[in-house]
Amino acid sequence: MNSPATVVGPLIEARGIHKSFGQTPALRGASVAVSRGEILAIMGPSGSGKSTLLHCLAGLFTPDSGEVWFDSRRLDTLDEAARTRLRRTEFGFVFQFGQLVPELTAADNVALPLLLNRARRRAAYRTADAWLDKLGLADKGTRRTGELSGGEAQRVAVARALALNPTLIFADEPTGSLDSLTGEKVMDLLVGLARDEGTTVVIVTHDARVAAYAGRAVMVRDGLVSFDERAAEASAARTAASPAAAAGGTTAKAGS
Amino acid sequence: MSVPLTLLGLLEREPSHGYDLKRDYDTFFGRGKQLPFGQVYATLGRLARDGRVVPGEAEPGDGPERKRYAITDVGRAEVDAWLAEPVEPEPHLQTVLFAKVTLALMLGKPAEAYLDRQRAAHLVRMRDLTELKRTGPLVDVMLADHALFHLEADLRWIDLTSARLAELAEAVRQQ
Fold first, then answer.
1. B53 and B105: one domain?
2. Domain A12-236, CATH
């Protein structure tokens, strides 16, 4: 169970990030590390700073202080052009609203980032169609996304994020505008396909049932990561292993 | 889980042998814990005595397992009433957690760490149930959903309590 020996560095990491909007601090020294292939949920009440943390990790916001590392490279000090390039090639995004172009068809929307990455038109659309098919949207490729239901549109967004074959997907309340059953389907597909592809996923959610799709959860409160499941496990294991606990027997079963 | 009412409900589909009832009970409601044959026949005996079921003619071979039981109108009405009645909401877990948190605060022990561990345990359970839902049959999905919503409610209570710990500690100290 405890095997910290062969740990490779995290794929992405925030170290002591501060970020304020005007006078209002959103993050006050938040730290989190995500391993390659991991699916992490960042939980927290609204206004806790969890979305700001995700935006900082993704290079969409620049932190006021602290560091962001991606694949052993410093991300927060990159210039805008380099960060944009990184976002286009390495990251996929699934947000609650507004990432699809409603006037374009589902296939156009999925193909668009591929075309921006200079894929050939025919290849881009072939890839787009294949991903729409995987998400159960084979018959929706020619429909404008503005005409699709919320659940269908969100599946297009998942297809779009995955079509780029990204290293890392950032999802911010990906089921926020969906009913429970539809949201579940979207999570099923997102997590299932990400696992198949070995894609790392960071999901921001206030919903514990969404977080339960992730392999690990952290909790943000008042701009800090106030709870990390990995740390909680380690602390429980330490308590269980400590001689005092074994002798006293008070919490000796905690790590069993 | 009420065994007599569940068996009665199963009989509403069609008259059945005790063996069939046991098999269906184990499949749909047992959740890994089988209903003993003895309990099935004892229950059917009581239901017959109380007029909820009637045993049919003994079939060749005799013995209780050779009888087909049918539900009566009284039995049917009882199942309907039971199904329509909401189950008593039981905040069982909160009671235990509440006691732990209060005691921890009273004794100056790390209540927040206890709550964190409880949250971690909840998350692990929710993750297992979610995985079960991804792979299991619809009956399991339904049961898992029910458990997930309850665990989620506990989790929200844990989060709120964590956020209020300082206030609670103050309140505990003052009493």
1. no
2. 3.40.50.300
Looking at the fold, whether B77 and B97 belong to one and the same domain comes out as: no
- Residues B102, B103, B105, B106, CA torsion sign: positive
Q: CA B149, CA A219: separation in Å to the nearest integer?
A: 19
- The ipTM (two decimal places) reads 0.78
The answer to whether the CB atoms of A45 and B123 lie below 8 A apart is no
Which residues from chain A sit within 8 angstroms of residue B159, using beta carbons? 45, 219
Burial class (CB in 10 A: 0-12, 13-18, 19+), B150: middle
Q: Which of residues 145-174 of B touch A (CB under 8 A)?
A: 148-149, 151-152, 155-156, 159, 162-163
Residue B130 near chain A (CB below 8 Å): yes
**B28, B61, B84 — which closes off a domain?**
B84
% chain A with pLDDT above 70? 87
Q: If 0-12 CB within 10 Å is exposed, 13-18 middle and 19+ buried, where does residue B100 land? A: middle
Look up the domain containing B60 and give its range: 3-84
CATH number at residue B65: 1.10.10.10
Q: Are B71 and B102 in the same domain?
A: no
Question: Do residues B79 and B152 share a domain?
Answer: no
Q: Which two tokens stand for residue B168?
A: 């609670």
DSSP H helix total and E strand total for chain A? 9, 10
Per-residue pLDDT of chain B (175 residues; tens, 9 = 90+): 578 988 998 898 889 999 999 998 888 777 678 999 999 999 999 999 999 999 987 777 655 567 899 999 999 998 888 877 765 555 456 666 777 777 678 777 778 887 888 888 889 889 999 999 988 889 889 989 998 998 898 888 888 888 888 888 888 777 5
Residue B58 at interface with chain A, using a CB cutoff of 8 Å: no
> Is the same domain home to B73 and B12?
yes
Number of C-alpha atoms within 13 angstroms, CB side, residue A72?
2
Q: Which residue of B has its CA nearest to A206?
A: B156
Q: Which two tokens stand for residue B34?
A: 């089988």
The tokens for A76 are: 């927060």
Amino acid at B145: D
If asked whether residues B101 and B78 sit together in one domain, one would say no
